[in-house]
Specification:
single chain; 118 residues; alpha+beta; three-stranded antiparallel beta sheet; 15% strand
């Protein structure tokens, strides 16, 4: 009994008949459906990429500009002396000293943040 009613076992849901192995036909149908699903996922991915690319802009900074430093708790930088507040994701603006690489810059960091980046 289930909820005061007699429940049906899964055995009675299927009709009693001869079993036929549907090997190659079923595999082909499944492969076709998987191909359609992959194509739809590819369409959705390209559509989302085109939406994101419209809003993307390249940022380039010059020496002397001020930028915020992104920090994460996983890097060992926690709380920065702020009591009772959550850890910030970005901390105060720092001056760019020089450009090191394509997207990396050397910043004028105070001594207490010297272990964050080198």
């Amino acid at each position: 009994m289930l909820y005061g009613r007699k429940f049906r076992a899964p055995i009675c849901w299927d009709q009693v008949r001869e079993r036929v192995i549907e090997g190659p036909e079923m595999i082909e149908v499944t492969k076709a459906k998987v191909a359609v699903a992959k194509e739809k996922l590819k369409e959705a991915r390209t559509c989302q990429k085109s939406y994101a690319d419209k809003h993307h802009r390249e940022l380039e900074f010059q020496t002397g500009d001020h930028v915020f430093l992104k920090v994460s708790p996983a890097r060992g930088v926690r709380r920065f002396g702020i009591k009772g507040k959550l850890s910030p994701q970005f901390i105060r603006p720092f001056k760019i000293l020089d450009r090191v690489g394509e997207v990396s810059y050397r910043l004028a960091l105070p001594p207490q943040l010297s272990h964050v980046h080198d």
